[in-house]
Amino acid sequence: MTKPSSSDQGSQAHTNANEGEGNRTAARNYDAGVAKTVQSGKVDEKAREAAQALDGEEGEELRRAEALGKQPPKRKQ
Fold it and tell me: How far is CA 24 from the centre of its chain?
């Protein structure tokens, strides 16, 4: 296992910090990714790729992952 560089340690400490209710860092990263995709003008292309993936070999796996993601969180005991 390699030791993280000093620059990695700083960002890792920030990403592991408890951000309270919700994860603001993840939300910002997601929003930035969505904005980048929209600005690229490739939304229709990406939608077609997603539809083809659902109809293709990985469709069953994608549907299982979707169903799993829709399940309520498991409570800690």
Answer: 13
